[in-house]
Design a protein that fits this description.
heterotrimer; A alpha+beta (192); B alpha/beta (1019); C mainly alpha (486); A: 192 residues; alpha+beta; four-stranded antiparallel β-sheet; 4 strands; C: 486 residues; mainly alpha
């Protein structure tokens, strides 16, 4: 570890109030940065606009998988109780006379169709969310900052990453200082 | 085949010795015998048993012949059926026993036998269990100190020799024999041989349940050897029962039921229907079938008969006049006081109008003169030869049980050796005989042959195992004179001898094998009766003994009924009648106590029989106990509640019995059932119920009065399988009077609405192709006798669960008989009985709710259970409106009455009884009636081999087969000629709870009662 | 209506006391997991663990001997087992209801109790799920209930309501756990950031998934949460409807009733709320949460329970009306004899022997809650504690009445029976409390029992006023002064 070098990863500016960070966010947005983010202890409303974010699309995932759930249920029940062919050698369906009712009685299938739809919808939403926000990720350079621990308590932060085209050590610093943060620091990460 | 592997003589010899020391095996295993293939299989299969292989595969010693459908002699897995006969005191019941690989597993009726006509009763069905009773006596024993100690057969033989030599000198003076009533000609022959050898020896007869009164009654009228009447109910349009439970406990009840039902199962309102009047004290199955039932104290019934004679005489029945006149002159007037003529006159008219088509039957519990009166009245009405017959009385033993036991007790001093062939007098002899003391006398050598080491064995100096009727040869005669051969179905499980073999050995007869003894006896019989055989269809060419013998074994009947017309004189009867001048009445202060055989345990012979113990008593539905039965009025008079203990005291005799209230029981009468409270019955029967014998004295063996009753405080838990007696106005067991039936022929379907007429919501299953199984039960025929319940139990390996599990409603009977009290009079209600089993609904509620498809429908419309698939959610049982599904809450084969106990060893011998075609269910599995699907499949396979379609009667469900009255029809509904299809079309047919829309396959024929229009009162 | 709009009946004032800062919230709630556990907690915890042990013993005995060790019999094939199942699953409904439905209705006051209620849901559903699993005669074959391909081609029967149960309950459990966990993520991050020692940091950090409060995450997170609320709402309604189908689709009089789905859902919400109330009051006093769970919250919940009790009462009444109106003798018998008792005597003039269970139910569920008409009762902790406990007892009796008093005297009088519970019945039921409270106490000790992030979101001025900002860009910072909502 002795001779390893560090390289800058991101600027971290700290603010004390919702309005302060909102104002700062609008500045950064207007400056045209892309790879930057606000860190708040709770979901702060209005920040979408302040950061100029596009609405989320996670809903589509949930919907599609919900539908797949319904379809699966319909197929499963008809396959096992109403048809008698053998798919992929998982065992043939087995239509039986049960209570004198027709094997493929639809009304009796409704509850399970519904439940399975909900199940897949819910699971897909959860894993979809993780996929979109690229979590879990435990090793983000932002955690190098001591002050950042307050981000989950009562402070608000703006981080601008080195990866952004507009990023340069001085210009970005100036921009952030102009938003008079409580503190401003440059976070560095080890080079691997 | 498996036995062959074990076919090493030495090994056989040794195994056989373990199996049963000495006995028939020694000669069986001589090199000579080993040559014969049969004995070879026999011996080696015993090896198989001893080696604990695949159950008991044992062939009996002598050749026995399969019943009509005989398989290749031994096809493993294919059951064979053998005809044999079981004894009923002086009567007998012919049966056909199913053998699975040499194990008798099921008893069925023998259609050829005149006392069975294809039906059976509870006792016959229970016999199988007794055969495999784990507590049967398994070796001879000698008294050492206070206990019996096992000895070898050799020791016992020595002891017998000693006995013989001892009495050689005094010609048998001081040698006495005591045996239960026997119906066996061979027994009588052997008895003769013994008496020849020991001229001074004497035989005594004693059975606690006996025909003393009937014989005394006959003796009143006939000279010489009396002949007890027997009846043909199918020809009687008006029947009067004087305390006779002729559908229940009376001899010949099975045949009586079948014939009685013929006069009741009417299919159209204008068909003739018989009428039944019953005068009785306790509420019996016969009483429930009555169109008119009169509650009366036992002692009073005789008076009723007497007055009936007067009334008939007054109506100009000449032959009665002579008797009546003398009696009237003697005893003043025809004292009609107290007996409402409103009942008697219409009855008399009815009897007269049906002269020659009527009968009057006296109950075994009624005094001799009542039997005589009944016979006289029958004669006067011209019923002889029409409904009433006399068998050729061949029994030369003219002593009654009462005389038998009392005389034995009288000259107790003279007795030096007492040999008892079966029976259990120490438990069931009249109290005043003090039999235990008799056995305890100094210097008395007492030998007791018995299937169990019972109360008597424990007091004897010697005990030896007696064989079960299914283990040895014998011959039995019925009241109607017919004779049948009792052939062994399995070699004796525990060795031992039969009575006749024992007597032969004692008499030093050269033929000691049961087979030869019977052959000898019957050889003499056969020569007498070639004509009967010719009638019977034997071609004259075959009239050699062997052919006749083989046919007898094959059909189970050797001689057909013979009739006689004994001359009668009324002298003795008149004397008796003159003697009783005053009517005996009962009152709160003068209660009458009567003794009856238990419907299941009989006199106690089946006291260790699990099936019998857990069989609900037909009227009270009590299990695992007996009780003192009293009427509601009596209970109020005594101030006693259900289950409260009573102490009955007469002289110094005391018994304590819990009270049970039976609506319809005669007031101020107490009925006690015998057979309970055994102390040496076995692991199941010991201490169950209450022993009432101490109250039973030789002068009051049927009923007695002057018994004081005190109500003890504590209550005793009596357990019923059915706790609610009323139908609460629901259309369940539907009945109507004949008039109502005439007015409204399909009243049954009116009362239970059948919604099947309304269009279904979905396309219903089509069962019009192939077989469509269905069952119909005629409530006119069903007496509620329970034979079907035990038949089902033994056919389907149904476990017993024990008293306290029954209390928690966990009994397992697939087929139950519901009993309801109908009518407003709580003291004398009508009774409706209804056998309920799985209704095999076409739209079964149970199937929809099973999550794992463990119960589904077959293409033939059976509601099947896949035990392996069942996880036991019990949802199906919740959703079954008939509550016929049974659930294995615990491992019933491991638990009996101890929910918190660990598993018990299930006795090996009982495993032999299981029907290999029916799965034995484990705990946690739901089970129910399958219409005996194993029989259905067996039948289908059979006809497939013959390449034809099933015809009606090829397949019989166990319950149908057992039913004495033939009230159950089972078959193919797609076959218009089948009985069940015909019954379905009968207008009194209805389906239980049809309004729920389950479309049951089982249907019922509503019951019709046929009250006398002129007779108000209980109809 | 935007999320910031306050609830009308609350007026303009906030639920939390004036001047509560974000840091206060963090301290109070996170503090519970960091400070040493109060003595009360240890007492309760040891108690519940020992009770859990009792259940273990009872179950072991059950598996060895069979269902026979319970009081179930013929005709009462289901008794305490299914009663407990329905009872617990009902309790499990409050959580999702509070978090999902109230969330959709923008009821801000939910934030103080939703985490709590969701946890309760998860544990209650676990207890509930136990019973269908153990009430089978051969539990080792329970897997037959799942459509697993097998060489015998035997499949489950999807017509059976029990199969619907399998799917409904498992779905409900899965979704509830996910919903609960998703809500926990930001708060776990809080605990992670506050944790002093490495183990704590590692453990909480692991489950926090490296959450860094980035708004680009919050954006999707919020929508996902909304979707969960959206699907959970019909789910929670469907689950108890499906449970009610177990009875409604059967033919047993007293079960075969069309009103069951709404009736059961109402009952579920009722019992769920009651238990939330009970537990909330206890934790509130043990962990001193009076500032976060205020009397206002409790008052609102009591009003809610009063309303639901009226719904349930209506359902009871309607059942009787239908029984009478249908003129179905069997159904009338069940309601007027088995339940009401004096309504229809049997031919011997006897009441249905289990009539008392019905009156216990009506008293607890309909009579008792009426006290909440009075403000003094609604705001008195002892009264509402007793009431909520009584209501839970009453709801247990409701299920007992439905299940047992319907089956023990149904179609054929010959088969009528009676039910008596055994010791094992009682121990098994008690044992589930051990399971529930063990899990629950672990939860309140080690996890934020109140949604920190959400509570913060409800503080005055928690959200920027963009219009104001855009209007005059230069403006003194207003950290302390709350920004009045529009």
């Amino acid at each position: 570890m002795a001779n390893e070098t560090k390289k800058p990863a991101l600027y971290l500016a700290e603010y004390g109030t919702p309005n302060a960070i909102a104002r700062a966010a609008m500045r950064v947005r207007d400056a045209g940065y892309q790879k930057w983010d606000c860190h708040t202890p709770y979901a702060m409303h209005g920040m979408d606009e302040a950061m100029g974010l596009k609405p989320t699309r996670i809903g589509y995932i949930s919907f599609i998988f919900g539908m797949i759930g319904l379809a699966t249920a319909v197929f499963m029940m008809n396959y096992t109780n109403a048809f008698s062919f053998n798919l992929l050698n998982i065992g043939a369906g087995y239509p039986l006379v049960v209570g004198g009712k027709p094997p493929g009685a639809f009304p009796s299938m409704v509850p399970i169709i519904f439940e399975l739809g909900i199940l897949l919808c819910g699971l897909s939403t959860f894993f979809g969310l993780l996929a979109i926000i690229k979590l879990p990720r435990h090793n983000h350079p932002i955690f190098e900052s001591e002050r950042f621990e307050a981000a989950s308590d009562d402070r608000f932060f703006i981080s601008i990453e080195v990866g952004d085209q507009k990023f340069n050590l001085d210009g970005t610093k100036a921009l952030l200082e102009a938003t008079d943060p409580i503190s401003l620091e440059l976070i560095e990460e080890e080079v691997r | 085949m498996l036995e062959d592997k074990n076919a090493d003589p030495r090994e056989l010899q040794q195994l056989a010795e373990e199996e049963q020391p000495g006995g028939f095996l020694t000669d069986l295993l001589s090199p000579k015998a080993l040559v014969s293939r049969r004995s070879f299989v026999q011996g080696s299969s015993i090896a198989a048993l001893a080696a604990g292989l695949q159950g008991c595969v044992r062939r009996p010693e002598n050749e026995i012949l399969p019943y009509s459908k005989a398989p290749e002699y031994l096809v493993p897995g294919v059951p064979s059926h053998f005809a044999t006969v079981t004894s009923r005191g002086r009567d007998s019941l012919g049966v056909v026993v199913t053998n699975h690989d040499g194990r008798p597993t099921k008893v069925e009726g023998n259609e050829q036998h005149t006392r069975s006509l294809g039906g059976t009763d509870v006792r016959a069905q229970a016999y199988i269990w007794d055969l495999y009773d784990p507590d049967r006596s398994q070796s001879p024993a000698q008294r050492r100190g206070n206990a019996l100690a096992n000895v070898t057969d050799a020791d016992f033989d020595k002891a017998l020799k000693a006995l013989v030599t001892k009495h050689k000198g005094d010609e048998g003076a001081g040698l006495r024999f005591l045996a239960p009533i026997s119906n066996s000609p061979s027994f009588r022959r052997m008895r003769g041989k013994v008496v020849e050898k020991f001229p001074k020896a004497r035989f005594h007869t004693y059975s606690p349940i006996n025909d003393d009164n009937a014989r005394e009654g006959a003796r009143m009228l006939m000279q010489g050897v009396p002949s007890v009447p027997f009846y043909d109910h199918s020809r009687s349009m008006v029947t009067l029962s004087l305390g006779a439970d002729f559908l229940g406990s009376e001899p010949g009840a099975v045949a009586a039921g079948r014939r009685f039902a013929q006069t009741r199962g009417i299919v159209s309102p204008d068909a003739p229907m018989s009428r039944l009047y019953v005068v009785e004290s306790n509420l019996t199955v016969t009483g429930t079938m009555a169109d008119h039932r009169l509650r009366m104290a036992q002692a009073d019934i005789g008076w009723f008969a007497r007055v009936l004679m007067f009334v008939l005489a007054a109506r100009g029945v000449d032959s009665l006049k002579q008797v009546a006149d003398i009696v009237q002159r003697g005893s003043g007037s025809a004292d009609l006081e107290g007996l409402d003529l409103t009942w008697l006159t219409p009855l008399a008219d009815d009897l007269l109008q049906n002269a020659g088509r009527s009968m009057v039957i006296a109950g075994a519990g009624q005094p001799a003169y009542v039997h005589a009166l009944a016979t006289v009245i029958n004669g006067a009405l011209g019923n002889f030869g029409a409904t009433t017959f006399f068998g050729s009385a061949i029994d030369t033993d003219d002593s009654t049980s009462r005389a038998g036991i009392t005389e034995l007790a009288k000259d107790a001093e003279a007795i030096s050796s007492l040999v008892m062939l079966g029976g259990n007098p120490a438990y069931d002899a009249p109290a005043d005989v003090k039999f235990a003391d008799l056995l305890g006398r100094e210097g008395l050598t007492s030998v007791h042959l018995s299937t169990h080491r019972n109360e008597t064995s424990e007091l004897c100096s010697w005990h030896a195992p007696l064989t079960h009727e299914f283990e040895t040869w014998g011959d039995q005669q019925s009241l109607d004179g017919s004779v049948a051969i009792q052939q062994p179905l399995i070699a004796p499980l525990y060795g031992g001898r039969s009575e006749i073999e024992f007597l032969a050995a004692l008499a030093g007869d050269k033929t000691t094998s049961g087979h030869d003894i019977v052959r000898e006896t019957q050889a003499s019989q056969l020569s007498k009766d070639t004509k009967a055989l010719l009638d019977f269809g034997v071609s004259p060419a075959d009239l050699n003994a062997d052919a006749i013998w083989r046919r007898a074994l094959h059909t189970g009947v050797l001689l057909n009924p013979t009739q006689s017309k004994p001359p009668m004189s009324f002298a003795k009867l008149v004397e008796t009648l003159l003697l009783l001048r005053t009517r005996q009445t009962v009152s709160k202060d003068n209660l009458e106590v009567s003794f009856e055989p238990d419907p299941a345990l009989w006199d106690g012979v089946h006291a260790n029989n699990l099936w019998a113990l857990e069989l609900p008593s037909p009227m009270t539905k009590l299990v695992w106990d007996n009780a003192a039965l009293i009427s509601p009025a009596t209970s109020e008079a005594l101030g006693v509640k259900k289950g409260q203990m009573l102490r009955l005291t007469k002289g110094d005799a005391k018994v304590e019995v819990p009270a049970w209230i039976v609506p319809g029981h005669a007031d101020y009468c107490v009925t006690l059932t015998l057979g309970w409270g055994r102390t040496a019955a076995g692991r199941y029967g010991n201490g169950k119920g209450f022993d009432v014998n101490p109250l039973r004295t030789s002068d009051g063996m049927d009923f007695t009065n002057g018994v004081t009753i005190e109500v003890l405080g504590e209550a005793y838990t009596l357990v019923q399988t059915q706790t609610h007696d009323r139908m609460e106005g629901r259309p369940i067991a539907i009945d109507a009077t004949l008039d109502e039936y005439k007015k409204e022929p399909d009243f049954a379907s009116y009362r239970s609405v059948d919604p099947v007429s309304t269009p279904p919501l979905w396309k219903q299953q089509d069962y019009s192709e192939g077989y469509k199984w269905g069952m119909a039960i005629d409530l006119n025929g069903c007496t509620g006798c329970n034979a079907c319940v035990i038949a089902c139990q033994s056919e389907n390996n149904i476990p017993a669960v024990g008293k306290f599990e029954v209390e928690r409603g966990r009994e397992m009977h697939w087929l139950r008989i519901d009993r309801y009290f109908v009518g407003d009079d709580p003291n004398n209600p009508d009774v409706a009985v209804q056998p309920v089993t799985c209704q095999q609904c076409e739209e079964a509620p149970c199937e929809n709710v099973c999550p794992v498809n463990a119960t589904t429908h077959t293409p033939e419309g059976l509601n099947d259970m896949a035990y392996n698939r069942c996880v036991g959610t019990r949802y199906c049982a919740n959703n079954c409106p008939y509550k016929v599904r049974r659930y294995n809450y615990l491992d019933w084969h491991g638990h009996l009455d101890d929910e918190f106990g660990w598993f018990e060893e299930f006795p090996e011998s009982r495993k032999l009884q299981f029907n290999p075609n029916v799965t034995v269910r484990m705990r946690g599995v739901m089970e129910k009636c399958t219409y005996c699907v194993q029989r259905i499949e067996e039948g289908k396979i059979a006809v497939k081999r013959e390449g034809r379609k099933l015809k009606d009667g090829d397949i019989k469900s166990a319950c149908q087969q057992a039913c004495p009255t033939g009230a159950i029809a089972f078959g193919d509904l797609n076959d218009p000629k089948s009985t069940v299809a015909k019954w379905l079309a009968v207008n009194r047919n209805y389906k239980l709870l049809a309004e729920i829309g389950t479309r049951p396959r089982t249907s019922f024929l509503a019951r019709i009662r046929n009250p006398n229009p002129k007779l108000k009162g209980n109809g | 209506m935007s999320y910031d709009a306050p609830i009308k009946e609350l007026g303009e004032t906030s639920l939390l006391p004036e001047g509560t800062t974000r840091n206060d919230v963090t301290e109070t709630i996170a503090g519970v997991t960091e400070n040493p556990a109060p003595r009360g907690w240890w007492f309760l915890f040891l108690l519940s663990v020992s009770v859990l042990g009792v259940m273990g013993a009872a179950l072991a005995y059950l598996f060895i001997q069979g269902i026979g060790v319970w009081g179930n019999n013929a005709p009462v094939y289901w008794a305490w087992d299914i009663t407990n199942f329905v009872w617990w699953i009902g309790i499990g409904h409050a959580g999702t209801l509070i978090s999902a439905i109230l969330f959709l209705f923008r009821q801000k006051w939910r934030t103080s109790i939703n985490r709590f209620a969701e946890a309760m849901t998860v544990f209650a559903v676990l207890c509930a799920g136990l019973f269908p699993a153990i009430h089978t005669g051969r539990p080792w074959f329970d897997y037959y209930l799942f459509p697993i391909p097998n060489q015998m081609d035997m499949w489950p029967n999807f017509k059976s309501p029990l199969m619907w149960d399998v799917f409904a309950v498992s779905t409900y459990l899965t979704i509830s756990v996910i919903f609960w966990y998703v809500g926990l993520i930001p708060d776990l991050a809080t605990l992670r950031d506050r944790s002093k020692n490495l183990t704590r940091k590692r453990v909480y950090g692991f489950f926090a998934l490296g959450w860094r409060g980035a708004h680009r995450h919050w954006q999707h997170y919020e929508r996902a949460y909304l979707i969960f609320a959206g699907i959970s709402t019909p789910l929670v309604l469907s689950v108890h409807s499906v449970v009610s189908f177990d009875f409604a689709t059967s033919i047993v009089p007293g079960w075969h009733t069309t009103i069951f789905p709404p009736y059961f859902v109402a009952g579920a919400v009722f019992s769920g709320f009651a238990l939330v109330m009970t537990l909330m009051l206890i934790c509130r006093s043990i962990f001193k949460l009076h500032n976060i769970v205020t009397i206002k919250h409790l008052d609102l919940m009591n009003k809610f329970m009063l309303g639901v009790s009226l719904l349930v009462g209506y359902a009871y009444a309607m059942e009787f009306f239908i029984a009478w109106y249908s003129a179905n003798p069997y159904e009338q018998w069940v309601f007027f004899h088995n339940r009401l008792g004096w309504g229809q005597l049997d031919s011997k003039g006897n009441l249905g022997p289990l009539w008392w269970a019905y009156y216990a139910m009506v008293f607890c569920n309909v009579i008792v809650p009426q006290i909440f008409w009075f403000k003094r009762a609604r705001t008195s902790v002892p009264i509402m504690l007793i009431a909520s406990i009584l209501i839970n007892i009453g709801m247990w009796f409701e299920r007992f009445v439905i299940i047992v008093t319907s089956t023990y005297r149904d179609f054929l009088p010959s088969s009528w029976g009676m039910f008596h519970p055994t010791l094992i019945d009682i121990l098994t039921y008690l044992g589930t409390f051990g399971l529930f409270f063990t899990l629950f106490l672990l939860f309140v000790r080690w996890l934020p029992m109140i949604a920190i992030a959400e509570v913060k979101g409800n503080l005055p001025g928690a959200h920027p006023d963009l219009h104001a900002l855009q209007a005059h860009d230069e403006e003194p910072d207003a950290a302390a002064a709350p920004v009045p909502a529009e």
